[in-house]
Design brief:
The chain has one domain. Helix content is about 45%, strand content about 15%. The protein contains three helices and three strands; from the N terminus they run αααβββ. The chain has a three-stranded antiparallel beta sheet, with no helix packed on it. α1 packs antiparallel against α2. Bound molecules: zinc ion (ZN). Zinc ion binds next to loops.
């Protein structure tokens, strides 16, 4: 029980960090991403899909509009996030889940 409530608080803190990151300068935003990842690791939490898309998965900078190029790739059925810092691409599929 105790552990569950700690994890809930940790999740909230992660959300708050991302919220702060969206309002901060690049340098601070990156720091908030770093902290959020650290919390997630400590509590073995998954960062939600929604938040995952807000930072680079290679160099972990916070994606502001001027730091990322977002394109859709209809061939792969994916949205491609190209990081302006490390130039690497992170892809997220937009294909709808198939009913099994
Ligand atoms: Zn990057």
């Amino acid at each position: 029980m105790q552990r569950d409530s700690n994890r809930k608080i940790a999740l909230e803190r992660i959300e708050i960090l991302f919220e702060l990151a969206s309002k901060s300068d690049d340098k601070f935003a990156d720091r908030y991403v770093y902290l959020a990842r650290k919390i997630a690791m400590r509590y073995t939490l998954k960062i939600s899909q929604n938040l995952k898309k807000k930072f680079c998965h290679h160099c972990y900078i916070y994606f502001k509009l001027n730091r990322v190029t977002i394109r859709t790739n209809s061939k792969n059925k994916a949205i491609e996030y190209t990081c302006s810092d490390c130039k690497k691409v992170t892809r997220y599929g937009y294909r709808q889940k198939k009913n099994k």
